[in-house]
Amino acid sequence: MEHTDPYLTAFRGFFASALRWEDLDRLWQTLRAQADDGWYVYAVGEEPPAAPVSRAQFTTFLSEIDALLRRDHDEDYCGIVYADDMEHPAMVKIYDPHNLGSSCGSSGNNPPPLPGWVLSRLAPPGLAAMQPTASRRRWWQRLFA
What we know:
Layout: H1 6-11, E1 16-17, H2 21-33, E2 40-43, H3 55-72, E3 81-83, E4 91-94, E5 117-120, H4 134-144
């Protein structure tokens, strides 16, 4: 019998897209209102965090990732941030604008790309991924060094 990790079950579940920038603004506002010391911030490809970040680190991350997405995803729509529940999120997938793969989905036998970052209430196991670029690693290390 296959044992399924609760994190992976949630990760593979249903997610809704913050399609418009206004949707993303509302999601950030919801996350800020729910901010506490219980959120894990995981940069996929790095070591998974051993503990949740502080409320201050979480809100700083939200501001920094928002700035990064708006700078690097030069589109009139967002569409690269997904939450399991837009009103009461427990997991949020944030895709890196520089690693979207083929139209943000799978093509042929290639699986869809993994998100660049995952916010969750559950402790993440390591997700197999390609190493992030040097510029993304420096950005991440600047936030959580």
